[in-house]
Amino acid sequence: MDAKLYPKSPTILWFRKSLRIHDNNALLRATQVASQLYPIFILDPYYINPEKIGYQRFKFMLECVKDLDKSLRKYQSRLLVFYGEPVTVIERCCKAWNCAYLCFEKDTDIYSRNRDKKVLERMKELGIQCLVESGHTLYDLDILITKLSGQSVPTQMTGFLKLIEQVGPPPRPIEHVPTIPPLNELGNVDCSSVPEIDDIPGYSEFSSECNTCPFQGGESVALERMQQFLKREDWIVKFSKPHTSPTSFDPPSTTVLSPYIKCGALSVRLFFWELKRVEDSHSFKTKPPTSLIGQLYWREHFYLLGYTTPNFDQIQGNPICKPIPWEYREDWFLAWERGQTGYPFIDAAMTQLKQWGWLHHLTRHVVACFLTRGDLWISWEKGKDTFEKYLIDGDWSINAANWMWLSCSAFFTRYFRVYSPIAFPKKYDPQGNYVRYFLPVLRNMPSKYIYEPWKAPLKVQQDANCRIGKDYPFPIVDHEEMKKRNIQRMMQVFQK
Ligand SMILES: Cc1cc2nc3c(=O)[nH]c(=O)nc-3n(C[C@H](O)[C@H](O)[C@H](O)COP(=O)(O)OP(=O)(O)OC[C@H]3O[C@@H](n4cnc5c(N)ncnc54)[C@H](O)[C@@H]3O)c2cc1C
């Protein structure tokens, strides 16, 4: 950076997704240009809506914000929290603090891009320079796009792997946290400290039923969690996603770093290079796309697709999405969402989703397939919105991409491969411990009937204290029948 071009001046550092101080390009840049540094976080009314961003997800994000504030305080600084429309808040702050620079990290989802466009335009009018850095992905996505030389982004992983092979490995993370200047006088600016979730309008009423997530947000927890995994070198080099178990939940069979990566509490570049270090010290290692590094490539691939594909999160106007003629039945959708389909594995998973805000990848597969092409023939957009609300790792690009995948709307075409809500979990967990944990009503059901309790004789149901139709629902559909019918429908779509 040419220091002459950037004489030191008061600077706002706007924290959005990268809720961390390690490996933070915007933070580094801000410290280079700031005579005084004002770290801000904006609670945008667009996101403050429990119907859209559920309690667990909001709480996890606030925990990350709180941890960031704690870290900044070690430098005699702190996070200045504002409520309001970002352009208005930033303009007010810039004027009050006489700022010359606004630093933030690039966001790629559609809402953020539109928001940032407005911010950039207004800052230009005010003569404030915006310094925008990449940092939420392994690569700067704009650099990947230039390497495509006008070609569209490959929709298959093999094509994506070829692209990044041309580019070389991603940049290494920043080694040290830069010195963060202490916070100056704030003048006449009305800001708050980091709120508790129950202080946010609309959320407090969910507090009693929703305080069930076992994962705590924050950069310090994220780094500690990553370090714990890095000690398991043998596990890392043998990691193969399809061989992990959807029904292992204590502990889960994958890292559960997704919520931390999503909130930017953990730098994806740092995680990548730590995994690479472990892999390089072993002669044997699994390879992308099934290895752990391969999982980060899935993320990167879906981010790049989300960034370049119009209307990526919907069917209409989305050039890579097959327009399948889905139908909507409110009672079926609500049964799925509320975990009352009568299929214990589906219902346990949807309960876990709401209680934990997280599900194993293959469990996500099964419930997504059930809602769409497997059983209920309901649009993936509905399922995507439910996941978006409840997942603490709810991520615009990754969520939409995976829902398109599971519903055979894009990427995946083997529509005749349908997950059975009975046989599939039985393979991993014949005793049904996962179901018993998340659905206590079925706790005493004999293993023989745990995935098909409606088949249990009445006496067995009575002994298990669970009468089907009274304590737990009958299946809303016949899986085998729906599967056959829907494969036929899919065949027609694919023949067109
Ligand atoms: C229908 C559906 C919706 C999904 N929605 C989301 C979402 O909103 N947010 C989200 O982060 N993941 C989503 N996933 C992908 C995946 O299920 C999760 O990333 C993964 O289960 C997170 O657990 P983990 O951190 O233990 O993963 P690990 O297996 O430990 O993988 C490490 C990291 O790689 C990334 N990753 C792993 N799998 C994928 C994948 N298939 N696609 C993209 N990135 C991946 C995540 O950042 C993850 O933390 C979805 C999958 C499906 C089938």
TrEMBL record:
Residues the entry annotates as binding FAD: 254-258, 295-302, 393-395
Domain Photolyase/cryptochrome alpha/beta: 9-138
Entry coiled-coil feature ranges: none
Cofactor binding summary note: Binds 1 FAD per subunit.
Lipoprotein recorded as keyword: no
InterPro entries: Crypto/Photolyase_FAD-like_sf, Crypto/Photolyase_N_sf, Cryptochr/Photolyase_FAD-bd, Cryptochrome/DNA_photolyase_1, DNA_photolyase_N, Rossmann-like_a/b/a_fold
Keyword Flavoprotein: yes
Gene3D superfamilies: 1.25.40.80, DNA Cyclobutane Dipyrimidine Photolyase, subunit A, domain 3, HUPs
Stated family: Belongs to the DNA photolyase class-1 family.
Identification of the protein by name: Photolyase/cryptochrome alpha/beta domain-containing protein
